[in-house]
Amino acid sequence: MNVTDFTADSKGLIIFSVFAGVLLVQLFYYLFFYSRLAFYKAKPKSTTKEPVSVIICARNEEDNLRENLPLILAQDFHDFEVIVVNDRSYDGSYDLLKEMAELNPRLKFIDINEDVIVSGSKKFALTLGIKKAANDILLLTDADCKPASSQWISQMQSHFSEKTDIVLGVGVYQKKNYSLLNQLIRFDTFLTALQYLSYSLSGQTYMGVGRNLAYRKHLFFDNKGFGSHNHIRSGDDDLFINQVAGKAKVNISPAADSHTISIPKTSWNEWFLQKRRHLTTGPLYKPKHKFLLGIFMMSQLLFFPLIIILFVIQYNLPVIISLFVLRLIIQLVVFGKVMKTLNQRDLLLISPVIDLVLPFITLTLSVSNLLVKPQTWK
Known about the structure:
By secondary structure, the chain is α/β, with parallel strands linked by helices. The strands form 2 sheets. Strands 3-2-1-4-8-6-9 form a 7-stranded mixed sheet, sandwiched between helices. It has 12 helices and 10 strands. It has one domain (25-378): Alpha-Beta Complex (Spore Coat Polysaccharide Biosynthesis Protein SpsA, Chain A). Helix content is 52%, strand content 12%. Helix 1 crosses helix 10, helix 1 (3-38) runs parallel beside helix 11 and helix 10 (287-312) packs across helix 12. The protein has helices at residues 3-38, 62-73, 93-103, 122-132, 152-157, 180-201, 217-222, 238-244, 268-279, 287-312, 317-341, 351-371; strands spanning 52-58, 80-87, 107-112, 137-142, 145-147, 166-168, 171-173, 213-216, 250-252, 260-262.
């Protein structure tokens, strides 16, 4: 062996060692965190039927309210109210809400006048809705969300016991077509749910989604609401949960009949802007949560480039292929079981491809946020 061969072998060994480390990180996340959701067995549900206040903040959402509010008001649950905060809308939302409230005593609404000067944050509107709520269990969703079944409220409420403070639900996006964008949006949402539900099962609750999230009213006021991050326009859902979950008792509700369903964006530019808004709060999470999320994303960014390099230099290809197949099998098993629970099984076959490109899209949009801050409320 000459010096050139020795140097090449040494470089190959170094690259392989980094690859092995990245692979171990990925396997740890799949087997330690994500397998918890894959093999999750729901706990016995509470037999106590506490009343629920559903809260929706809406700004110029007349069409969505017209379509989705009747489905919420018709929920099969014995005791609930629906509070809509009409946040400075200039469409026909006020007239629609007034008409619907006259016909249905469950519906209450708050109208924020267009002349009211606020920061533009949804947090102000949500705080008003929470103050008006008559019940301790608050169930939050958005105007563009519809319940997946008539049991949505019942299912979310059933995960509350006397000691439960928070229930994390799932908000999915509609299968409008099988375009790449639709599948990418739905897989991104699936991966987010996989992470926050799995971490919660391991005692590391770090976020929830405002499309489907429940917590107790007293938890909100005991922690001074959004006071610690009210100056930040976004984060009415994830930053609040990140702030309060440490000492709270948290349950999850992954079953399909407890989901909410939203209509996904239909253009790449709209989705990029939406995802940029979602990414603005991540840097404000607690350090341990940023570390956990950052390490996994870094492993995603490095995994495939390292494989390509090892293939190019043809370093120990049988071992590389075997390790890749091992990781793929574990990934597909975990994804498959969770997708079955979340009613997203049609994404399984394309998931390895999307899993390849999504981390780089996320990285690009995160960097763009450092340059130009996206708008965070409509």
